[in-house]
Task: structure prediction
Amino acid sequence: MNLFRLGGDLAHLVSIFILLQKITANKSAAGISIKTQILYSIVYVTRYIDVFTKWISLYTFVMKLIFIASSFYTVWLMHNTYKSTQNPQIDTFKIRYLIGGSIIMAAIFNHKLTFNELVWSFSIWLESVAILPQLFMLQRTGEAENITVHYIFALGIYRALYIPNWVYRWIFDQYFDYIATVAGIIQTLIYSDFFYVYYQRVMKGKKFELP
Amino acid sequence: DEVEIIHDEL
Result:
């Protein structure tokens, strides 16, 4: 464990907390893409499919359970309790292409042709693009509540911090996973525009509005 | 004897 990775994981936890706090405090899921949330549920279930069968550490065990449970809870809240506050007319990204593309990428780029490795690779590729419906929705709306953009920012920081973590592990641990690294860089690039607008507007105390 | 792949990251 190094500080980049710990920071990334903590940013991930913070993002989940912000999202659930926003939905329950406002009693509204307005501005949040349920499609992105469904994709994250798929990502965590496939990534952590061995959570009960392979022990790494108490830290990873607890975090995995938190990520799986909170993503399902978020989808459940959006689909049931706050269904009427959703924006299906602007949450129109075709996620079948993201899922299909991730299946193809996992079939080509994987560490081993076993079920667990294929679903692991699938989860990595799917995670790299899972934010797209949310960013697409933001673009269609043109502006968003600050709490929503803080959520997206914290989530983006999570994978961005994994990049120096991989550099660190490559230098000091002789560890390198090309699939996680390439997908992680793609994921961070997808956020780059968003990060730029976030910095230009929100950090300077303005409303998040797309130029 | 293949090396088992361990994914220790989240």
User: Anything to note?
Assistant: The helical segments of chain A are 3-26, 34-47, 58-79, 95-108, 115-129, 132-141, 146-172, 178-201. Chain A is about 70% helix and 0% strand. Chain A touches chain B at residues 5, 9, 12, 47, 54, 56-57, 60, 63-64, 67, 111-112, 117, 120, 162, 165, 177, 180 (CB under 8 Å).
